Amino acid sequence: MQTITASTDRARDDAPGEDFLLAPPRSAGRIACRVDPRDLRRLNLYAVLTTAGIAPWPGDR
Predict the structure, then answer these.
(1) Domains in the chain: how many in total?
(2) Fewer Cβ neighbours under 10 Å: the N or C end of the chain?
(3) Phi then psi for 51, rounded to 5 degrees?
């Protein structure tokens, strides 16, 4: 069984075959954008349809 470990030591991270966890993303570094509610509903609909096995066609509105 292989154990996954977190390491901040760069010398150990460069070792071949060594697994390490990635640091979580910094939310302060994200791009601030606002999605129109109509577009958000469309994205949610596409996600539900795709999960159900019905992929949207290109150009669907």
Answers:
(1) 1
(2) N
(3) -65, -35
* Residue 11 domain-assigned (yes or no): no
Structure tokens at 33: 């954008």
pLDDT digits (tens, 9 = 90+) for 25-58: 887 777 777 888 888 898 899 899 999 999 888 8
61: containing domain:
33-61
Task: Give the residue, 24 or 10, on which the prediction is more confident.
Answer: 24
Residue 12, domain member (yes or no) = no
Give the 3-state secondary structure percentages of the chain, helix then strand then coil, rounded to 5. 35, 5, 60
Is-contact 56 46, C-beta < 8 A?
yes
What residue type is 39 in one-letter code?
D
